[in-house]
């Protein structure tokens, strides 16, 4: 199951428009709040030019890119943490995501109503973040109350770790700081995982602009970028309406259209890559005459774990991995040349797979 990124924001900021363009799907996008009630889920291909370059040199029968999942979640309004609007549904859906892409409206359009009556991206951000903080604080306070009696006479180290984690998280949330900013020990972090806190998830901002602001941004995007920098996050500028048009173009026409706009790639590609980074993901490849395929793993994954993404038997019976860098393949022009240069390596169980590695696993079950 691919890791996923939930698309969130106030109603009418362009979440569903961006989701539709991302997935070329038909999620409804309309000019009224709560158009999205049940979350829409889409699997998107992760753009990676290395895959095509490997295929040009290996000449496989098939080519398989890697993917990630985006989820379009119902719009949130002030009071959602207390059940206003579709707050309870929103919070339940977002708890199941791995990361958050927070769409912020950074354009004027009198034809598209704003739920607050005016365009103010920082106020919108504060509304969403406040509701997420309040929802998490409610969760932590309830757990703190249950732990109070349990901790009085316990010697259970795991319970003590949970108690200290909850105390730290409660203090941060009361101060208006998200859970992801709290410095926890490994034991505390493990204990806190069962709380499923929303503000513990990594977040990036998606500034939805009009066409005029696409290349250089505007005062709104500058404000969002400053807020993102303060939170050690990042911002991706996208024109959702234009991305919808690009998604409908024939692939052969997209390059020329983007060039006419002074762009090298669609904004959606930048969003997908940002989501990939947000989840600390990297790509490795398997390459042969039957298939060249991209695989997604967490950064820091060792060779057996990478093999397990293909099949659990590969991890269980892992012996070794034959490995070389895709950059070496591109530089030398063939797998044979890589071997002759002594750049094909045999790696064992402790090898940490690098982004762009080409691997062949040997295993025995």
Give the topology, please:
Blueprint: E1 4-8, H1 15-23, E2 40-45, H2 49-58, E3 62-64, E4 67-72, H3 87-95, E5 99-105, H4 121-150, H5 157-174, H6 186-192, E6 203-208, H7 219-230, E7 235-238, H8 240-248, H9 251-260, H10 267-278, E8 281-287, E9 291-298, H11 303-310, H12 312-316, E10 318-325, H13 326-332, H14 335-340, E11 345-347, E12 357-363
Parallel strand pairs: 1-4, 1-5, 3-9, 5-6, 6-7
Antiparallel strand pairs: 2-4, 8-9, 10-11, 10-12
Helix pairs in contact: 1-8, 4-5, 5-6
Question: What structural keywords apply?
Answer:
single chain; 365 residues; alpha/beta; 6-stranded mixed sheet; 3-stranded mixed sheet; 14 helices; 12 strands
- Oligomerization state: single chain
For the termini, the CA-CA separation is 24 Å
Read across the widest sheet, the strand sequence of neighbours is 2-4-1-5-6-7
* Count of DSSP strands: 12
Radius of gyration: 23 Å
Overall morphology: flat
Mean pLDDT: 86
Biggest sheet, open or closed, and with what strands and sense? 6 strands, mixed
Strand proportion:
15-25%
**Unreliable stretches, pLDDT < 50, 5 or more residues?**
25-37, 83-87
Structural class: alpha/beta
- Fraction of helical residues: 40-55%
Q: Count up the helices.
A: 14
User: N-to-C SSE series?
Assistant: EHEHEEHEHHHEHEHHHEEHHEHHEE
Summarize, please:
The protein has 365 residues and is α/β, with parallel strands linked by helices.
Report on this structure.
The structure is a single chain. This protein has 365 residues and is of the alpha/beta class. The chain is 42% helix and 19% strand. The chain has helices spanning 15-23, 49-58, 87-95, 121-150, 157-174, 186-192, 219-230, 240-248, 251-260, 267-278, 303-310, 312-316, 326-332, 335-340, and strands spanning 4-8, 40-45, 62-64, 67-72, 99-105, 203-208, 235-238, 281-287, 291-298, 318-325, 345-347, 357-363. It has a six-stranded mixed beta sheet with strand order 2-4-1-5-6-7, with helices on both faces. A three-stranded mixed beta sheet has the order 3-9-8, with helices on both faces. A hairpin with a 3-residue loop joins strand 8 and strand 9. Residues 25-37 and 83-87 have low confidence and may be disordered.
């Amino acid at each position: 199951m691919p890791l996923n990124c939930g698309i969130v924001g106030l109603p009418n900021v362009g979440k569903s428009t961006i989701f539709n363009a991302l997935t070329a799907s038909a999620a409804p996008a309309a000019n009224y709040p709560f158009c999205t009630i049940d979350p829409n889920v889409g699997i998107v291909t992760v753009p990676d030019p290395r895959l095509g370059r490997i295929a040009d040199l290996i000449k496989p029968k098939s080519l398989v890119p890697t993917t990630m999942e985006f989820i379009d979640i119902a719009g949130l309004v002030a009071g959602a943490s207390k059940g206003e609007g579709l707050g309870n549904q929103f919070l339940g859906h977002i708890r199941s995501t791995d990361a958050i892409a927070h769409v912020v409206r950074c354009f004027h359009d009198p034809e598209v109503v704003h739920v607050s009556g005016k365009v103010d991206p920082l106020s919108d951000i504060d509304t969403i973040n406040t509701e997420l903080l309040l929802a998490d604080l409610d969760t932590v306070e309830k757990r703190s109350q249950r732990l109070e009696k349990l901790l009085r006479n316990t010697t259970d180290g795991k319970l003590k770790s949970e108690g200290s984690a909850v105390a730290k998280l409660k203090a941060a949330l009361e101060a208006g700081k998200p859970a992801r900013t709290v410095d926890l020990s490994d034991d505390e972090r493990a204990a806190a995982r069962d709380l499923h806190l929303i503000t513990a998830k990594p977040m990036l901002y998606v500034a939805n602009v009009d066409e005029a602001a696409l290349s250089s941004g505007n005062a709104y995007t500058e404000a969002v970028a400053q807020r993102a920098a303060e939170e050690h996050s990042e911002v991706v500028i996208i024109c959702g309406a234009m991305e919808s048009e690009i998604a409908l173009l024939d692939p052969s026409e997209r390059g020329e259209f983007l060039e006419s706009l002074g762009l090298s790639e669609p904004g959606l590609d930048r969003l997908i890559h940002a989501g990939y980074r947000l989840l600390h993901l990297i790509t490795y490849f398997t390459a042969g005459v039957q298939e060249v395929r991209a695989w997604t793993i967490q950064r820091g994954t060792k060779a057996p774990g990478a093999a397990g993404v293909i099949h659990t038997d590969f991890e269980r019976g892992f012996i070794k991995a034959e490995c070389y860098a895709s950059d070496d393949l591109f530089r030398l022009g063939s797998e044979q040349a890589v071997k002759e240069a002594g750049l094909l390596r045999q790696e064992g169980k402790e090898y940490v797979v690098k982004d762009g590695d080409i691997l062949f696993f040997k295993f025995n079950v």
